[in-house]
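ok, trying the design again with the full structure, not the truncated one.
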């Protein structure tokens, strides 16, 4: 197997050849496409739901990651729109009676989707401020106290209030997740988080500790890393860009999930996607795992 990779204007171009097969693949790190690193402190949403122009004004004041339909023609301008790729996740139409955990929920797209599908309880877990992120040492050292204490969650709170949601939002780092704190869950979702963590396997082990049913893991993958005789290869990325610590091969990601304590690990889907307005050049894989 011969592989040659170049980085052209932020797009990783991999040329490979093996036997009678040859090809070219393009992959773009999330950090190269996501909007600017430091986001201004966002306004706190009102304690009562807003409608019409007042709601639109609040929505416009938040830097949204998720595209969420708030009703009455108001849709958040998220950097990513997951609705077109939702079928790839093969979620059951109904989740009645199930207890669901959404890890690193951000603006809450997945949390509200699980609630919409009838889950008995949805717990949305996330950090509260920038200081809790796995920042590289030099990045953290260069940030002011104000930047480190920049709060997260304005988008989730506004969507939660507007939708009249009963999702329970909890403050917890994934490394601190335990059954003693939150109990066990029938379904756990963790999307686009592992590449942002210094210790993804440690995080997976904490996730495994609260799963009594199944877990869904999705993340950006780089198929060029899977062309080395089936070896589980990752590439260290130093926490660069938008806090990207790893380029993950699909084989390696599946092995990491298995080694964290999941006995059955299956890649459900693989597809390309990208931010709204950009071509879908990033490979994404969805794994379902059971203890």
């Amino acid at each position: 197997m011969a592989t040659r990779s170049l980085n052209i204007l932020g797009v990783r171009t991999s040329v490979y050849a093996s036997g009678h097969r040859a090809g070219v693949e393009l992959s773009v790190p999330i950090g190269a496409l996501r909007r600017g690193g430091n986001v201004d402190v966002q306004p706190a949403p009102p304690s009562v739901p807003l409608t019409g122009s007042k709601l639109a004004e609040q929505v416009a004041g938040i830097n949204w990651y998720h595209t969420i339909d708030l009703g009455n023609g108001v849709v958040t301008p998220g950097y990513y729109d997951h609705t077109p790729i939702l079928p790839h996740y093969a979620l059951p139409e109904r989740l009645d009676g199930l207890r669901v955990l959404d890890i690193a929920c951000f603006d809450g797209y997945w949390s509200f989707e699980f609630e919409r599908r009838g889950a008995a309880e949805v717990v949305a877990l996330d950090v509260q401020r920038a200081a809790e992120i796995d920042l590289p040492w030099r990045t953290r050292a260069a940030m002011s106290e104000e930047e480190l204490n920049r709060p997260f969650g304005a988008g989730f709170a506004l969507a939660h209030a507007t939708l009249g949601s009963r999702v329970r939002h909890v403050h917890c780092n994934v490394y601190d997740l335990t059954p003693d704190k939150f109990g066990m869950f029938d379904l756990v979702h963790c999307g686009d988080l592992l590449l942002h963590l210094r210790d993804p396997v440690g995080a997976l082990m904490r996730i495994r500790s609260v799963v009594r049913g199944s877990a869904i893991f999705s993340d950006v993958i780089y198929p060029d890393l899977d062309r080395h005789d089936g070896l589980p290869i990752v590439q260290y990325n130093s926490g660069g860009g938008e806090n990207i610590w790893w380029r993950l091969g699909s084989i390696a990601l599946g092995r990491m999930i298995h080694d964290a304590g999941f006995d059955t690990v299956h890649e459900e889907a693989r597809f390309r996607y990208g931010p709204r307005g950009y071509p879908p050049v990033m490979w994404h894989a969805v794994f379902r795992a059971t203890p």
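Keeping the full-length input from now on. The CA atoms of residues 35 and 151 lie 17 Å apart.
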